TrEMBL record:
Alpha-glucan water dikinase-like N-terminal Ig-like domain span: 5-119, 151-264
Native organism: hydrothermal vent metagenome
Upper taxonomic lineage: unclassified sequences, metagenomes, ecological metagenomes
Domain Alpha-glucan water dikinase phosphohistidine-like: from-to ranges: 702-813
Reported cofactor(s): Mg(2+)
Residue ranges of every copy of the Pyruvate phosphate dikinase AMP/ATP-binding domain listed in the record: 951-1024
Name of protein: Phosphoenolpyruvate synthase
């Protein structure tokens, strides 16, 4: 068997596999003359770690590279490089992974981090499909939950929860071989909880793992790995979270990066968690209570939640309410300063200890440390105030400010004392300005009433003594440093002094510069940020290896102080007159500072791309267009960050805040105030300044019109368009929606949808808007959007002007009439007569298949040979109906008819139940035989697991009852019983790039110009409206150069291959009604989600490559339109130098 692999470095590798005596021989040949080394290893499967074969099998010249890879040079034979690898049959490896290394250039080609892969042999299926076996075993039982998970392209896990005679039974079956362990826990109060299961639930041979999880081995039986958990109904948890561990390879197997979760008994309602109850009981009683008691209790509680993110979040919320004075700092107890600092010392060292041992908890540990002072020399607080008074002969007599403060400090020193000291210093410096004194107190959160309400109240006003002014200023400045060192861990000066012993000369020199220039307005902001960032790099390197909790605490406080100083410095200077290039310079350092404490794929990818883009700064239209794409993605990442904090903190803030009787503002704005104190807020400020500037330079305008129309109606505002899906408006309505997910069905009566959310031109909602001739537009201007929202309830008339912007004016409600319903040409067909279970593409014709299949057939023989069409077969109309009436499906058919008859009652729930019911259909025995013959005739490979393919077919049929499809048919008068669903089966093109072409520009209506969008990977990120914009361009059909409108900014790329089962009904791809996205297409092997990094992407950085690709895509559009004879919406792909058309439909 010979395979050609086209590498990204331009080398074509010919790979030949052949059986030899006792094994297999793999020959790799390359015609390129470069010196090249094959960096390779073997693996059990696509996810397993690399391993090397026994040394006796190493090709000549091979050397080991670490423990998992070999490096073998290509040897020259007749002007080509060659490597021959021989492997024994008894080696249980299925995959050969490799990358190429070019020693002269010192460069690598690792397929953009994905490596290249040669399949040595197909993995042997050890038993029957697990889903099929499980189905048989469940007959006659009450099944509460059932699902099948793809563990990798070759293996499945079937899971079912059943109940019988008061006991639960969880069955797990998988065809993954080898020593497999279920690593599991229980959730009692919330889905995200993971607790050690009680021993009463443990099956035989279960062991406790690290005190937090149970591990139970699977047992091999009849070719499948099996496991059963049984437990009593009264012991049933809310759910069971788990992952799999292959003890042979050490591989952890998750559900697409997350834990598997099986719901069992539902959430058990409890008023408060045990942790919250303990906190509230301590805070709200009448017993003695101070900051010291609070810190000591927190120290003790941490041990129970050190790896529990939700528990730590609740502790942070508690400490934060304390820090913002929503909880008492003293009640019926006198705390000596040394006692308070001792409690601070214990707590902060405990936090540092958790930081070291629990990486997943570090984000919350950092937040908690901002609410607690470092501790330190508490006794000096009492001593020094007395020394100052004695040094200046200030008498300790009642009725004097300094004596009252002195008594308060002895009685209960708190962070209020730092504010009092600052206010007193301002009073002294201003020659006794009492108004400034109280204003400073108020700004620091200490009101006059709070002063007078201390257990040792401060009621007297300070005295100004002119001859002591300078001496007192000196002494109290030093005293303020002492107070801050104890109470404010993130005070920059205190943090530098505390951590200075840990730093080398370079870091110390940079800190000296930062401190010296912190208030110097003439210092370049970029220079200051550069040094802050460089010091924080050093600190974060230290934190990654340091194991001593004292040193970690000191490093953390310095890092937090620098982070806070960076935020304050940028906020303080951002409003001054700055040039565009200065804003551009600031984005990178701020982004990097965010990543020190919170990172995700968007932030990291954007940081690398921005740094490269900053290096070629030109402030041209093209540069602005590229910068806009990066910053749009940054904006989405900030949104994710804000949502993350809200989900993490706000529930706890609501819970504890109400119990604490905190001020309403402190509860409502809790998460928002935390976000405002993070570097992400600074970044959002930079974006707010840059966005309009870049938009203007890139000539993007304030609007993007997705669907042309003239919308008139009453303005309604909603948070998400989905909130009004299925609703019918009796008067013409304009919807202003903050969020649009892309798969909604615009409600009846809506004439226009305006949103700030990015929407792909081929998303379901966009296609539907064009079907309905309603105005659908994205508004990028914040002021315009706020103005529209302020007009809620008023009647507005919207139109698109000649420049492509949306204009609107207020009109009288009496002039507004309901929009006419758009008529569609739905062709009612007779109930199809059975001819065959499956048909080849040459047999496609009207009445048997839908427009999706027919349109591809119409292209056969009409396109140049460089444009390829995927091989196709179909299950024609009527097969679903035939399967439904089989005797074996009689019970399902009866339930199905009953559900459909009740759809007008509660459609959302009934539709979901209808889809679930159809997934239980059994196939006639003749169907797989017939389908296999047709697929082999068409050159399509037969799937190894028929039950998986059958499930895909059923999911396509069931998608006729998606909510959006049901609502769309209802709105357009298509009777449910007149809809028939064929299933088009094709080979997935393993796309490097996917594209959608509209052969008439939908924005301008120009029929001489097409518009197209391109994404990396499979096209589902386009049609599914995944976050971010695609690369967009226009091009005249007469042969001019493509004009770039947007750079790609999608966060996720989908990659994969195998078979795809596409919906193909008589209710889509109609004239004036595309129907795209109404019904589901299902891949046999779910695609891989890959976070995208455009830093080295040719489409972005190589102008010649991009021009060639876009020109060829333009030619595809022109050729297809010519072949069909009318404007088209075309979906296509590029892979391995070849162009494919996978779908085409009439453009709407």
């Amino acid at each position: 068997m010979v395979e050609e692999i086209k590498t990204r470095s331009g080398i074509d590798l010919l790979v030949e596999r052949r059986e030899i005596a006792g094994g297999i021989e793999i020959s790799l040949r390359m015609k390129n003359g470069k010196d090249c080394i094959l960096h390779w290893g073997l693996a059990l499967d696509e996810h397993a770690p690399w391993q090397i074969p026994p040394q006796s099998l190493w090709p000549e010249g091979s050397t080991a590279f670490g423990e998992g890879a070999l490096q073998t040079p290509f040897t020259r034979h007749n002007n080509e490089g060659r490597i021959i690898i021989r492997l024994n049959k008894d080696l249980n490896f299925h995959i050969l992974n490799f990358a190429l290394f070019f020693p002269k250039e010192g460069s690598w080609d690792n397929n953009r981090g994905k490596n290249y892969r040669i399949r040595i042999k197909p993995p042997a299926r050890k038993g029957p499909p697990p889903a099929q076996v499980l189905e048989e075993e469940l007959k006659g039982r009450e099944v509460l939950f059932k699902d099948v998970y793809g563990l990798d392209p070759d293996h499945r896990l079937a899971v079912a929860l059943s109940r019988e005679d008061g006991r639960y039974r969880l069955n797990l079956l998988t065809d993954m071989a080898g020593p497999l362990l279920l690593h599991w826990g229980v959730a009692i109060h919330g889905r995200n909880e993971w607790l050690l299961p009680p021993s009463s639930m443990h099956p035989p041979k279960t062991e406790v793992f690290d005190g937090k999880a149970a591990e139970t081995p699977f047992v091999l039986h009849e070719g499948l790995n099996r496991l059963v958990l049984e437990f009593r109904e009264e012991d049933a948890p809310m759910g069971i979270p788990f992952v799999l561990r292959h003890s042979g390879t050490g591989r952890w197997i998750k559900n697409r990066g997350r834990d598997f979760y099986i719901p069992v008994a539902g959430q058990k309602e409890i008023p408060l968690s045990q942790l919250a109850e303990e906190i509230i009981r301590a805070e709200m009683g009448n017993h003695s209570w101070t900051l010291m008691h609070r810190f000591n209790l927190c120290h003790d509680l941490i041990e129970n939640v050190r790896s529990d993110v939700e528990g730590l979040a609740l502790l942070f919320v508690w400490l934060r309410f304390s820090a913002i004075r929503q909880l008492v700092w003293q009640r019926n107890y006198n705390t000596k300063p040394r006692e308070l600092t001792h409690s601070q010392d214990r707590l902060t060292l405990k936090l540092a200890d958790v930081y070291i041992s629990e990486p997943a908890s570090r984000e919350l540990i950092r937040l908690m440390m901002t609410t607690v002072g470092r501790g330190g020399e508490g006794q000096r607080i009492r001593d020094e105030i007395l020394h100052i008074m004695h040094r200046h002969h200030i008498k300790e007599v009642a009725g004097r400010f300094l004596e009252e403060w002195h008594q308060k400090l002895h009685n209960n020193a708190t962070p209020d004392d730092s504010v009092i000291c600052e206010a007193y210093l301002n009073f002294l410096k201003s020659d006794g300005d009492l108004e400034l004194f109280y204003r400073t107190l108020e700004a620091g959160g200490v009101t006059k009433e709070r002063l007078e309400g201390f257990e040792r109240p401060i009621k007297s006003q300070p005295d100004f003594i002119p001859n002591l002014k300078e001496a007192l200023i000196h002494d109290f400045q030093e005293y303020l440093k002492l107070l801050k060192s104890v109470h404010s861990g993130t005070d920059l000066e205190s943090a530098i002094n505390a951590a200075g012993y840990l730093l080398d000369a370079e870091a110390s020199e940079m800190l000296e510069f930062i401190w010296k220039h912190k208030d110097n307005s003439k210092t370049e902001l970029v220079d200051l940020l550069d040094r802050i960032t460089r010091v924080r790099r050093i600190l974060n390197r230290l934190l990654s290896t340091e194991k001593d909790n004292v040193r970690v605490r000191d490093i953390l406080y310095l890092d937090l102080a620098l982070e806070e100083f960076m935020r304050v410095t940028v906020e303080r200077n951002i409003h001054s007159r700055m040039e565009v290039n200065q804003f551009v310079e600031l984005v990178g350092p701020v982004l990097e500072n965010i990543r020190f404490s919170y990172d995700n794929d968007d932030f990291s990818g954007c940081f690398r791309e921005w740094e490269r883009l900053k290096g070629v700064y030109s402030y041209s239209r093209d540069w602005a267009l590229h910068a806009k794409a990066v910053l749009d993605r940054v904006g989405r990442a900030i949104g994710v960050f804000i949502d993350h904090y809200y989900r993490l903190l706000q529930p706890g803030a609501e819970l504890l805040g109400k119990a604490f009787q905190a001020d309403s503002w402190a509860i409502t704005l809790f998460s928002e105030e935390i976000v405002r104190g993070r570097p992400a807020f600074v970044l959002s400020m930079l974006l707010r300044y840059l966005d309009p500037v870049l938009r203007k330079k890139a000539k993007l305008g304030n609007w993007q019109v997705i669907s042309q129309g003239q919308g008139v109606g009453r303005v309604e505002t909603v948070e998400a368009l989905r909130a009004v899906q299925g609703k019918s408006f009796d008067k013409p309505t304009v919807i202003i929606a903050d969020k649009v997910s892309g798969d909604e069905e615009p409600p009846e009566g809506v004439t226009a949808v305006i949103t700030p959310d990015a929407v792909d031109l081929v998303s379901h909602v966009a296609v539907r808007a064009r079907n309905s001739r309603l105005l659908f537009a994205i508004c990028y201007d914040r002021k315009n959007l706020e103005r529209l929202k302020s007009l809620r309830g008023r009647f507005l008339n919207f139109a698109v002007d000649t420049s492509g912007d949306v204009v609107f004016e207020e009109v009288s409600g009496e002039m507004v009439t309901a929009p006419p319903r758009v008529k569609i040409e739905f062709i009612k067909i007779a109930r199809p007569e059975f001819t065959a279970y499956a048909i080849h593409s040459r047999d496609f014709r009207e009445g048997l298949v839908g427009g999706k299949s027919l349109n591809l057939t119409r292209l056969q023989g009409k396109l140049p040979d460089w444009i390829h069409l995927p091989a196709s077969v179909a299950l024609p109309f009527g097969i679903f109906e035939k399967v439904l009436v089989l005797d074996r499906n009689s019970g399902i058919a009866q339930r199905y008819r009953e559900l459909v008859s009740r759809l007008d009652g509660n459609p959302e729930e009934i539709l979901a139940e209808t889809r679930k019911t159809l997934l239980g259909l059994e196939a006639p025995e003749e169907l797989p035989t017939a389908l296999r013959g047709v697929m082999e005739d068409a050159g399509l490979g037969w799937p190894e697991a028929w039950d998986d393919a059958w499930m895909c077919i059923k999911r396509v049929w069931a998608s006729r009852w998606n909510e959006r499809a049901y609502l769309s048919r209802k709105a357009r008068g298509i009777p449910d019983e007149d809809l028939f669903m064929a299933v088009l089966i094709q080979q997935v093109v393993e796309a490097e790039y996917s594209f959608v072409i509209h052969t008439d520009n939908p924005f301008t209506g120009d029929s001489d110009e097409l518009y197209a969008e391109v994404v990396l990977g499979l096209g589902e990120t386009l049609v599914g409206n995944y976050p971010g914009r695609a690369l967009g361009f226009t091009c005249k059909k007469t042969g001019s150069e493509p004009q770039l409108l947007s750079y790609p900014g999608k966060s996720i790329g989908l990659f994969g291959g195998g078979l795809i089962f596409r919906s193909d009904s008589n209710g889509e791809d109609l004239s004036g009604y595309a129907g795209a996205g109404l019904y589901d297409s299902v891949m046999l092997v779910p695609p891989r989600e890959v976070p995208l990094d455009y830093t080295e992407e040719l489409l972005v950085w190589d102008e010649n490559f991009r021009k060639e690709l876009l020109t060829r895509i333009t030619n595809v559009g022109v050729m297809v339109e010519k072949a069909i004879g009318s404007p088209q919406d075309i979906e296509g792909a590029y892979a391995g130098g070849r162009y494919y058309v996978v779908q085409t439909r009439p453009q709407v």
